[in-house]
């Protein structure tokens, strides 16, 4: 009603904690999450006059599963190209869609017993056996945790591919030459797999299909990859961080994001000690991104960096969709901490529209919280420049905090300024 929209938008981040926990608790994830397919769907719209939602392909039936996502990829590529988006950015979007596809394949038939039966009815054993034989010949894949899950997903993809080619449904990859150069290793494995399938089933696979499979292999490998950006979610509340992390890990079928719940009675120093310990454990060679709800936690990044020697960045004003996005992108092989940091900041900007957000230092004078302080200081001081006074005094308190190894919370910052101005 506030925005006068025709549709009612319900975001996960707006649901109460108890509802989120009931939907995504460990005891419900196989029963609830794995029965839905969200590939290629940013928004799901329910209309009151429509009672049959099966036409939207939201529910995954036990006996059939539409795996053909090529049309969606082609449509996305053409649309973004027409909008003048850079090719590198388009590829990043397409990679994200393919990664969602691979996660969905891995989740759908493998953990749920009824879906496992459907998988056995759909996929020929010889496909999975051949894929396993080829992947295990390569050091990058052999003896890796989660390989069996990936083998089943690839076998499912190939089974659908064979059926599609038999009826003449052939597609062209929009960026074939670049993929062949940049992902040559995965491309050669894909060619080997499809070559064997050609001999077994008498089906000729176009080169474009090897490109799609190479991208699938490349992006699926992140689930087995040892190096990735660690995600640490720190939120105020007894279970807020855990709920967000549970949602992200469940939807992405991983245990990558880690939560620290900051109870209202917990001391900041105790949480900081806990954060340092966890940072040492979860770092996988590419740094740590802290996601939090309040600006006071942003100072943790420097303290953890100094204590551990690891690269750490922090972003606040974070919601559940942002945690999901950050976790997914953190697992992407080519992602760096710096790139992820600014990528998530851009996502938060889009999420909050024109509103100033307290996530990072900005060119126009800093965080939204900082701007509030500056505005109030300017109203208090009659003959002094409020902005200059703010940054001079901030430098003073930063030196004090560094000298005594203190974490400066926003509440303490407010008291510091108020005390000085009362003295003045």
Automatic annotation (TrEMBL):
InterPro entries: PRD, PRD_sf, PTS_EIIA_man-typ, PTS_EIIA_man-typ_sf. Pfam families: EIIA-man, PRD. GO terms for molecular function: transferase activity. GO terms for cellular component: membrane. Keywords: Transferase. Residues 122-227 form the PRD domain. Residues 228-352 form the PTS EIIA type-4 domain. It comes from the Bacteria. The keyword Cytoplasm does not apply. One of its GO terms (biological process) is regulation of DNA-templated transcription. The keyword Transferase applies. PROSITE patterns: PRD_2, PTS_EIIA_TYPE_4. This is Transcription antiterminator. It comes from Clostridioides difficile.
């Amino acid at each position: 009603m506030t925005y006068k929209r025709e549709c009612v938008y319900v975001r996960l981040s707006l649901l109460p904690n108890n509802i989120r926990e009931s939907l995504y608790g460990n005891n419900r994830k196989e029963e609830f999450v794995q029965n839905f397919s969200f590939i290629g769907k940013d928004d799901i719209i329910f209309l009151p006059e429509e009672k049959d939602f099966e036409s939207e392909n939201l529910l995954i039936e036990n006996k059939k599963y539409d795996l053909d996502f090529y049309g969606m990829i082609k449509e996305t590529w053409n649309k973004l190209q027409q909008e003048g988006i850079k090719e590198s950015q388009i590829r990043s979007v397409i990679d994200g869609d393919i990664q969602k596809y691979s996660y969905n394949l891995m989740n759908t038939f493998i953990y749920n017993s009824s879906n496992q039966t459907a998988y056995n009815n759909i996929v020929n054993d010889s496909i999975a056996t051949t894929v396993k034989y080829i992947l295990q010949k390569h050091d990058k894949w052999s003896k890796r945790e989660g390989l069996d899950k990936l083998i089943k997903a690839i076998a499912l993809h190939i089974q659908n591919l064979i059926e599609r080619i038999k009826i003449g449904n052939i597609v062209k990859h929009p960026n074939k030459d670049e993929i062949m150069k940049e992902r040559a290793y995965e491309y050669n494995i894909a060619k080997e797999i499809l070559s064997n399938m050609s001999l077994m089933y008498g089906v000729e696979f176009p080169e474009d299909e090897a490109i799609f499979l190479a991208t699938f292999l490349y992006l699926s490998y992140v689930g087995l990859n040892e190096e990735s950006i660690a995600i640490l979610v720190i939120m105020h509340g007894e279970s807020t961080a855990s709920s967000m992390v549970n949602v992200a890990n469940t939807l992405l079928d991983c245990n990558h994001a880690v939560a620290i719940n900051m109870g209202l009675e917990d001391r900041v120093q105790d949480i900081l000690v806990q954060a340092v310990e966890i940072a040492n454990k979860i770092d996988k060679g590419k740094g740590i991104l802290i996601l939090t709800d309040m600006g006071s936690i942003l100072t943790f990044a420097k303290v953890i960096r100094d204590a551990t020697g690891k690269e750490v960045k922090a972003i606040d004003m974070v919601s559940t969709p942002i945690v999901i996005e950050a976790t997914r992108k953190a697992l992407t092989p080519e992602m760096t901490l710096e790139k992820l940091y600014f990528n998530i900041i851009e996502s938060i900007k889009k999420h909050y529209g024109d509103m100033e957000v307290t996530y990072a230092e900005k060119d126009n004078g800093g965080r939204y919280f900082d701007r509030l302080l500056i505005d109030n200081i300017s109203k208090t001081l009659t003959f002094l420049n409020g902005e200059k006074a703010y940054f001079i005094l901030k430098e003073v308190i930063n030196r004090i905090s560094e000298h005594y190894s203190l974490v400066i919370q926003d509440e303490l910052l407010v008291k510091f300024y108020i005390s000085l101005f009362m003295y003045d």
